[in-house]
Write a structure and sequence with these properties.
The chain has helices spanning 2-9, 15-34, 38-52, 61-80, 84-104, 106-126, 130-146, 153-172, 176-196, 198-218, 222-235, 239-252. By secondary structure, the chain is mainly alpha-helical.
Length: 258
């Protein structure tokens, strides 16, 4: 009913009304996709995009931000549908908008730019273009590192997750030294958080140490790997994770508890 009203209204509304209409259409688009109606979903998202779009000589940061978000959502929709070229094009447009907005308010829009880069990286991974994917995740990482000046736990958590993911990409490509470098940075960053709240950060810390241990095995340093594994065991809070680390020590060291 609401969508029919929007289609038939034939009016141009002020910014707040346009924001409301666009958000409603975005919600409808997500609902249509969740209920297996992809054509309706795409149509609703494109209508939302047309509402949010503003001409270059009449910039509204609020509308432009929603336009960029909608472009990311459409890109993700295309990616899930296997339309990877259209997905790439849509997310590239969102990145261009978020870049411009970031010059107005870096603290507000750079985190959203980082998300857009990560989405583009995922699209390139899906299309088997690994080098381009790594480049996009590197852009995301650089932005999140800048956000550390805010010294908030949320900024640190997001950067840690990006560091670990980027390290896994490097491991997949055989770039073990780069992976270990990023994991060392993650270990250094998470250390104070681990000391303040081991029950909250212990398992993440253990996973980082465990990844580093696997890299040392690949590099031919089993003694270093076992030392990292024992530290991971001591840090881990989850019993299943402890058992997993214990099996690692049994395989590459000697039987028994680390």
């Amino acid at each position: 009913v609401a969508l029919a009203w929007l289609r038939n209204s034939g009016q141009r509304f002020d910014r707040e009304s346009r924001l409301h209409q666009g958000k409603l259409l975005e919600s409808l688009g997500r609902l249509y996709e969740a209920t297996a109606r992809p054509e309706h979903s795409e149509n609703a998202l494109k209508q939302a995009l047309s509402i949010f779009h503003v001409s270059e000589d009449s910039i509204s940061p609020a509308l432009a931000a929603h336009e960029a978000r909608t472009l990311v959502n459409i890109g993700n929709f295309y990616a899930r549908s296997g339309r990877l070229q259209e997905a790439e094009s849509s997310v590239l447009k969102s990145i261009a908008i978020f870049r411009d907005l970031s010059t107005l308010s870096p603290s507000t829009f750079e985190p959203l730019l980082a998300i857009a880069y990560a989405n583009l990286g995922s699209i390139y991974l899906e299309s088997q273009d690994f080098d381009k994917a790594v480049a996009q995740f590197a852009e995301q990482l650089a932005i999140l590192k800048k956000q550390l000046v805010n010294d908030t736990e949320e900024c640190k958590r997001e950067y840690l997750e990006a560091l670990v993911y980027f390290s896994r990409l490097n491991i997949s490509s055989g770039n073990l030294n780069a992976a270990d470098e990023h994991l060392c940075e993650a270990e250094e960053l998470i250390g104070p958080l681990m000391g303040a709240s081991p029950e909250r950060w212990g398992d993440r810390y253990a996973h980082i140490l465990q990844f580093r241990g696997l890299i040392q095995i690949q590099n031919g340093f089993p003694v270093d790997a076992l030392d990292l594994a024992r530290r991971a065991y001591d840090s881990a809070q989850d019993d299943k994770l402890k058992m997993e680390i214990s099996r690692f020590v049994t395989q590459f060291g000697h039987p028994g508890k680390p």
